[in-house]
Amino acid sequence: xxxxxxxxxxxxxxxxxxxxxxxxxxxxxxxxxxxxxxxxxxxxxxxxxxxxxxxxxxxxxxxxxxxxxxxxxxxxxxxxxxxxxxxxxxxxxxxxxxxxxxxxxxxxxxxxxxxxxxxxxxxxxxxxxxxxxxxxxxxxxxxxxxxxxxxxxxxxxxxxxxxxxxxxxxxxxxxxxxxxxxxxxxxxxxxxxxxxxxxxxxxxxxxxxxxxxxxxxxxxxxxxxxxxxxxxxxxxxxxxxxxxxxxxxxxxxxxxxxxxxxxxxx
Length: 266
Known about the structure:
mainly beta, 45% strand
């Protein structure tokens, strides 16, 4: 969201800026454009095209200035939008190729590849996170990246096929990751803080010193972010049909029976 506007983009569709109160479209990318647009700062946007061209845009999207041309191996394609971290932007491909672009010099360099990436890069205060279906969590940062293992392959998914292994980060950079048999947490330097045996059926969310995840009960669990101990358990009438959403002091979860659970958070 920027200046009260939402940036929306569905796969294969043009990106649009939407005024939530009125539904009015303020601006959109050319329908012929295939790629992603993300906010760089209050005065500019970044746009990555399917052809690998990274451009800098004005706030109203009327002017786009090509900055660098990124290359992919034959048959590869970009995996998700570019991710900003500090003075750099990271882009990844479906085959695990990772590139870092310095936003001051606009020079790019390739980073060590990630085999079998499960997701597009995920933002972290110190860099970006990559999750491999092989059960590898990587924090990529300047000078001191690290890799840690977790239960991979089929454990990355719920029985309905939803990706569970979507990492989230707290306000000091600790990382939390749910898999089918466990919920795990690492500190910013890659040290395992705790691992809790759980039958997770949703990705984990962090909010104000607590972790939230749905287990196979089904039940919504609130856990201590310091120890992984279960603090609260709320039984659900049906399994979840979407991801947990937390906004300010409200938590919402869509259920498979058509109901939506809405609760206040501590």
